[in-house]
Each structure stands twice: as C-alpha cells, then as structure tokens.
DNA sequence: ATGGTTGCTTAGCAA
C-alpha cells in the first residue's frame, strides 16, 4: 500500500496539478491538507473518475483536510470531538486498506509568543488526548500531514535561523513529543538517512532554489504499521514548475 | 527590524 500526504495549499488553485500528479504517482491513499474549500466544492467527482473515493472535512478559505483512497473509507470521524474548539477543520480519520488513517493539519502558530502559538501548543496536547481516547498503539494507525513542526535539527536546512520561529522553536518540538511517546513512530525518519531532505519551502526569498527547507510534513505510524514500512520519500519534483504548492508530497510504501 | 510570496477575497489576513 502506497500512501502519500500533501499540503496542497488550495485544491482549487492546484486541482489540475493534483490530478496530473495522481495519474503519475498513483498512490493508493492520499491525505490532503489546506484544501480551503467547503465539502460541496471538493472535486470528488473528478477523483472518482480516476478511481478514488473521498472523505472530506472542509471549510471556506482556511484549513480543510481530506482523505482519498482506491478502497472504501470506513467510519470517518471529524475533529477532536473533545468539547474544545472544533471550528477549524484540521483532523479527519477513516479506515482504509485495513489501516486507520488520519489526515492532520496542525496549526501554524503565527509568531512566537502569540495567541496562535499557544493555540498550537494546546492543539498538540489535544492530539495526544485524542489518541489516548480513540486509538491503541498496538493497532494499525497512520497519522500524517502538515505538522508545522520540524522534529529534529537535521530536518531544518538552517537550524540557527529557524529556531526562533514557530516551526522549529523548542516549545513546539517538545509539544509534539507526547503524541510520539503515546506510540507513534516517524516512518520517514526510520527509512531515510538524516539530513538534507525537506517537505516545505517558503514561497518567499527563493527558499526552494536556495535549498532552505524544513521537514514539517510527517508520516507517523503505530508499531504494526512501522513493521510493514518498506520505504519513504519526498517527491521534490512536485514542488517545481509553474504554481506549485509550497509543500511537496511525502510518501511511504507498506508491505501488504 | 522589515519584507520577501501566494491564496482568498477584495485590503488585509494567514501562511
């Protein structure tokens, strides 16, 4: 089973690119983030023409997550459903290919010390609580998407310059740890030598051609999934050319 | 310290 995750940064702006990429990459499952459309505007019919079913959790203008799969997507669930703020569409989970798959869009966090930074830290704490409440570390679960956190020094091209930002500050790296400690492994980190492989490059200041990237898009899995993971990679080609997303897809291949 | 770019929506926010 080949699974991809991709922050598409507006599925309306990127629809033709996405369809062309699907025809070429042919993942079995694709988790999308930042679709930025209400559910009725998600291009489910065009995906269905290519053999993909969809479940969506979208909103206007901001956020929005989706999962598309070549097999049925069972028992979809939206948001934390923990009594807290669920107005931002950032979490969607469904079962497909015998695996519980979650598409995750962690809050960016804005400026260090801002309310958005605090919201991000709290959101990651809620993620750990949601795992405890709704999942088990001995069952097959994949949690993938845009975490807006680079976990390791080697996941950042210029760590000194990024440490004082909300993508690599110690506070957010620490806030990610409880979810990992619950029983999630970084599938990409286990398969690819550390350093020099990134998934996001800022649109500004020629970050992509300068190689100024961060690995903030993660594919995490419980032990039963990690045991089946054969390889992982980033499709850098998808970041090139005309009007790309600022993120590249991250992929993993699981043994059947 | 600011601004650099893109998308959505229409001047300004979010990323």
How would you sum up this structure in a few lines?
Helices cover 27% and strands 26% of the residues. By secondary structure, it is an alpha+beta fold. The chain has one domain: Endonuclease/exonuclease/phosphatase (Deoxyribonuclease I, Chain A), CATH 3.60.10.
Explain this structure to me?
With 256 residues, this protein is an alpha+beta fold. The chain has one domain (2-254): Deoxyribonuclease I, Chain A (4-Layer Sandwich), CATH 3.60.10. Helix content is 27%, strand content 26%. The chain has eight helices and 14 strands. The protein has helices at 15-25, 44-49, 115-134, 159-162, 170-183, 187-191, 207-210, 223-226; strands at residues 2-7, 29-33, 53-57, 65-69, 74-78, 91-96, 99-105, 141-146, 185-186, 200-201, 213-214, 217-221, 229-234, 250-254. It has a six-stranded mixed β-sheet with strand order 3-4-2-1-14-13. Strands 5-6-7-8-12-9 form a six-stranded mixed β-sheet. The longest helix has 20 residues, at 115-134. It is globular and about 45 Å long. The protein starts with a strand and ends with a strand. The chain binds one DNA strand of 15 nucleotides through loops.
């Amino acid at each position: 089973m080949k699974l991809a995750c991709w922050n598409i940064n507006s599925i309306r702006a990127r629809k033709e690119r996405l369809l062309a990429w699907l025809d070429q990459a042919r993942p079995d499952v694709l988790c999308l983030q930042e679709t930025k459309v209400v559910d009725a505007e998600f291009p489910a019919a065009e995906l269905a023409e290519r053999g993909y079913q969809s479940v969506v959790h979208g909103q206007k203008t901001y956020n929005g997550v989706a999962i598309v799969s070549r097999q049925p997507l069972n028992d979809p669930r939206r948001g934390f459903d923990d009594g807290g703020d669920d107005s931002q569409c950032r979490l969607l989970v469904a079962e497909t290919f015998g695996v519980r798959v979650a598409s995750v869009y962690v809050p960016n966090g804005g400026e260090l010390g801002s309310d958005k930074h605090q919201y991000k830290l709290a959101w990651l704490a809620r993620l750990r609580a949601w795992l405890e409440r709704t999942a088990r570390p001995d069952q097959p679960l994949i949690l993938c998407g845009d975490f807006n956190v680079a976990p390791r020094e080697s996941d950042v091209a210029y760590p000194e310059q990024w440490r004082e930002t909300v993508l690599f500050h110690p506070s957010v790296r620490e806030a990610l740890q409880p979810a990992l400690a619950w029983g999630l492994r970084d599938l990409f980190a286990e398969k690819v030598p550390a350093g020099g492989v990134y998934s996001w490059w800022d649109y500004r200041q020629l970050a992509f051609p300068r190689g100024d990237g961060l690995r903030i898009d993660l594919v995490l899995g419980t032990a039963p999934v990690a045991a089946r993971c054969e390889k992982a990679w980033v499709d850098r080609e998808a970041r090139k050319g005309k009007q790309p997303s600022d993120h590249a897809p991250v992929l993993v291949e699981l043994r059947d």
